[in-house]
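In this supplementary section we document a worked example of the pipeline. Step one takes a protein sequence of length 335 as its only input; no multiple sequence alignment statistics are reported here. Step two produces a three-dimensional model, which step three serialises into structure tokens for compact storage. The input and output of this example are shown verbatim.
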Amino acid sequence: MTEGIRFERVPLPSLPPGELTAARLDPSLREWASSAPMRALARASGWEWPAGRDTGELLDRLAALSDEWDFRGRGGGVERNLIGADAAEVNGHLVAEELVLAAADALGLVRATPVPDVTFTTLLVLSGLVRACVNRTRHAAALVRDGLHADSVTVLGGHRELGGAEPEQAATLGFGEQLDEADVVLAATRQAFGLGEPRKSEESGPRPGAWDDRLWSAWARYAWPGIQVLIAPSSDPGRRVNTVDQLRFWASENGIGHGDRVLLLTTQIYVPYQQFGALQVLGIERGCGVYCCGVDAASSFLPGTVFSGRSYLQEIRSALRAASQLLSAVRKAGG
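The serialised model returned by step three reads:
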């Protein structure tokens, strides 16, 4: 990843169905959170490493300290793609870009790893900005073409008004005039898999002619043999849908439970966060096996975002928070 700084790769926990217990999860989370790259980032940020042997306390403390890596919050709650590429300054220390990139690589945020050679119930593709929708659906189609063992493919999306250059990007990609992420993910899926009109379509209501925040609560399903696009509603009508909403809606609509194996596909920088979050939502709540894979620079169809050290620290923070919540949930569930 970098010329001068190297760390050994630290595995992310991915447990088979029925084996998501505190006893199995605790050592894996502790190994990831207390690894050499994480400790190096802590030192560079001026933190004193948390004392104590309890993994939950370690994760809670690191999650709290990582508030200093919240560059979205510093910018007033900006979108992830607007964090910027300025040097990462924490507690008056400039955290070297080379160090952050090497640590992020070892922690699983840069390079993709091979997909496990098991049969999955579903390849579940998450949506995002226009380029992410294209890259993820294209990568999903490539995985299926190359022999991925999955009974079905679902592309998850939600209603979100496009911003910035996204409408122009959508038009350039041949999607026409688009205002909504839900329409983009549908168009990207059809393009990636070479699909015609869906065999079956369901929508919660008629679509307005212009963007309306009430769309946050709308849902839709578009289906072809073995493939579906599922547009999930927000659980809170006052905000747009998030990943937890999408996963819970999909699991409920499809009867996901014990014995199922789900392969979640996102962009590589989000893999640790999505892995921990999906283990909580699908693993604990539904009892299924969860694995996460990502689109990295080598597998991108369109040139992806070149992430800065600030972006990687932001997402390591998200992963730490998700890991803390996951262990707490497993312990509460008595697993």
